[in-house]
Amino acid sequence: MPRPIILGVVGDSAAGKTTLTRGLVRVLGEENVTHVCTDDYHRFDRKQRAERNLTPLHPDCNYVDVIAQHLGHLRAGEPILKPIYTHSDGTFGAPVYVKPARFTVVEGLLGYHTEAMRQVYDVRVFLSPPEELRRAWKVRRDCSRRGYTTDQVLAELDRREADSEAFIRPQERYADIVVRYLPSGDRDQEHLDAELVLRSSLRHPDLSGLVDGDAGITLSERSDEVILRVSGSVEPETAAEIEEAIWERMHFASHLRSERLGEFTIGTDLHRSESLAVIQVLILYHLITAKASLALGGDGTRAPSGIPEAVHT
């Protein structure tokens, strides 16, 4: 069996990592995906962190070397005994035996912190929403799911700010795709603008024929990057054209097509975002083409280290 294709999704707490990956797992099939959260590798529980005045964002609060070791085992097709951190009460549970499936999705705070980690991934995504938006998401999540008060969440965000600036945000430079959700006036979460920074470390599909500023789709170049902007007000038909164009470039995976891309939940209510659907299908494109490369005897679709590629637009 070929080695698994490994996707990394890194970002600060409540940046939208789980929302993004949930739809990808649904399309690829739960049975085909191994999920690993690097936040399970905390060195200290919540009480111990408080005693040491450490935040979970600090590398000293995490077994960074063990994360790199376990990711290397997964890439080699080998199982790991993964620790479990319970967010609801800040304690550790019993470790679980994890075997790599066809795809491995790795998400968390420090997934790109070391070179050894970064070399494992076939696709590296970084989520970088504006801070005011991320803070609002974290307040809502931690108050509704983890039992905190608003004041507690805001105080913890302030306490973490220095570590976020020092250790989390700098990882953006290592991503192949940077995703930024941008609020537009009073639009709700179904209609957030999305800006995708597409870097030349991967060969991205040609989307230039779909650019239509009047319809809410723009494409621009900057150095070795392409910036794709999808308006939150884009019509479903226009977003569907982009998705269709990307699906056509991976016609060998047509069996994976799903109308459920772009879905997310707020509480128990199901919503859909057209910009989220575009982001997810673009990431799927890279996962599927990397898998095809392995099947043909290659080793994925990343550009050779240290050799920049032309941007494909």
Question: Helices, strands, pairings?
Answer:
Layout: E1 5-11, H1 17-28, E2 33-37, H2 46-52, H3 64-75, E3 80-86, E4 91-98, E5 103-108, H4 115-118, E6 123-127, H5 131-145, H6 150-168, E7 177-182, E8 193-199, E9 217-222, E10 225-230, H7 236-248, E11 263-266, E12 269-272, H8 274-295
Parallel strand pairs: 1-5, 1-6, 2-5, 6-7
Antiparallel strand pairs: 3-4, 7-8, 8-10, 9-10, 11-12
Describe, in plain words, how this protein is organized in 3D.
GO terms for molecular function: ATP binding; phosphoribulokinase activity. The structure is a single chain. This protein has a domain at 176-313. Helix content is 33%, strand content 23%. It has helices spanning 17-28, 46-52, 64-75, 115-118, 131-145, 150-168, 236-248, 274-295; strands spanning 5-11, 33-37, 80-86, 91-98, 103-108, 123-127, 177-182, 193-199, 217-222, 225-230, 263-266, 269-272. Helix 1 packs across helix 8 and helix 7 runs parallel beside helix 8. Residues 306-313 have low confidence and may be disordered.
